[in-house]
Amino acid sequence: MASLKDLRARIGSVKSTRKITSAMKMVAAAKLRRAQTRAEAARPYAAAMRRMLAELGAGTRGQSGLPTLLAGSGNDRVHLLIPVTSDRGLAGGFNANVNRKTRDLIGQLQAEGKTVRLLPVGRKGGDYLMREFSDLIVDTIHGSGGKEIPFSAAAELGERIAAMAEKGEFDVCTLVYNRFQNVMSQTPTAMQLIPLALPANDTAASADAPVYEFEPGEEELLSSLLPRNLQVQIYATLLESAAGEQGARMTAMDNATRNAGKAIDRLTLKYNRTRQTNITNELIEIISGAQAL
Amino acid sequence: MSIEVEIVSPEKVLFSRAVEMAVIPGLEGDIAAMPDRAPMMLLLRGGVVELYENGVVTERFFVAGGFADMTATRCTILADQATALADLSVADAQKRLAGLEASYDAADKMNVPALDLLMAKMQSARAEIEAAGGEAVKAA
């Protein structure tokens, strides 16, 4: 039986835990709103980019000698996976979900006899993959540490991937990240970046679509649009992941706050019962002592 | 007759409204987007997008390169970076230009794609200085 003093200490410590988790929840809620606005603001650009690429891609379908970023290297041997996680923990299953998805993908690709290489973004995923698959890792990239993500960070990563693709260091590139569905749920998603996945059934649409003129030329346009698209897709992914992280943290901290409240109620009840038992015992001792006289 | 013009940078939508005409700094020369124009995609150089309403320029934006997608009814400008003209700073752009010129001088003269990229950036910085009302220093 825990003594009254022990119980008091436990209640005190759970109370301060609850204060911390509820503060973290508030902070996450404020950050979430900002991250969500930014993710939404970035969508029109990415959408317009996709539309332009779809138009351009439809015109070049089936041609040979297409840029590597569009058509890939023609092989399917070396896969580069880019898992996007956060730099900080305490966000529920946010990072674990991406890590699990990555691990499953690695297992699946390796079972098919393919070579897998990893380029994790974010400290949490990097740490985990470093432990499990250190021989597959090309490099690890730190996230922004919860601060605002500048476009230049995505641009740098995009340039790096484009350079790797040109050198033929991989055949297929896939991003693994948490897609922001709503505050409560983020779905770990794998999105193929290279070769570019164009909408397959736009033949009907492109038959009616007006014939575009290109300036300077289709090839020049493609060769500057493709690297840009890579950067934009990565940027959009990083922003979604950042919004998802705050959402996941908010939900996790909300649960933790509620659990702490329940634990305090339970401990307080136990404390009061123990106190009452002690008093009753003392009374019984006094009364029986008095009767014995 | 009007055309829907959208100016979008990776961070946000800067402008989205129907205007009479938009003059866009294309890589090979300025191009006007007007209603019922044949669809066209083009690369942009650093320069100023001018939006006309009732025959006068009502809005000006500086874009530092990018793409434009024009159709008969719509014109989408995907800018690498876009700023309203009033928010430009000459000093800022001049500092950037000086940095670019230094790295151009230091760059490997055999690496043509990298030089092209630097050239494009310098052109954009010069256009920015000009747009902001400053004097572009002629590069040696």
Structure description:
The complex is a heterodimer of chains A (293) and B (140). Chain A contains 7 helices and 5 strands; from the N terminus they run ααβαβααββαβα. Chain A has 293 residues and is an alpha/beta fold. In chain A, β3 and β4 form a beta hairpin. With 140 residues, chain B is an alpha+beta fold. Chain B is built from 2 helices and 8 strands; from the N terminus they run ββββββββαα. In chain B, strands 1, 2, 3, 4, 5, 6, 7 and 8 form an 8-stranded mixed sheet that branches. The interface between A and B is medium-sized, with 27 and 24 residues. β5 of chain A pairs parallel with β5 of chain B. Chain B: Belongs to the ATPase epsilon chain family.
Write the layout of secondary structure elements.
The complex is a heterodimer of chains A (293) and B (140).
Chain A: H1 4-60, H2 68-71, E1 78-83, H3 94-111, E2 115-118, H4 123-133, H5 151-166, E3 172-180, E4 186-194, H6 203-208, E5 213-215, H7 218-292
Parallel strand pairs in A: 1-2, 1-3
Antiparallel strand pairs in A: 3-4
Helix pairs in contact in A: 1-7, 3-4, 5-7
Chain B: E1 3-8, E2 13-19, E3 21-26, E4 29-33, E5 40-53, E6 56-70, E7 74-79, E8 82-84, H1 90-106, H2 112-131
Parallel strand pairs in B: 1-7
Antiparallel strand pairs in B: 1-2, 3-4, 3-5, 5-6, 6-7, 6-8
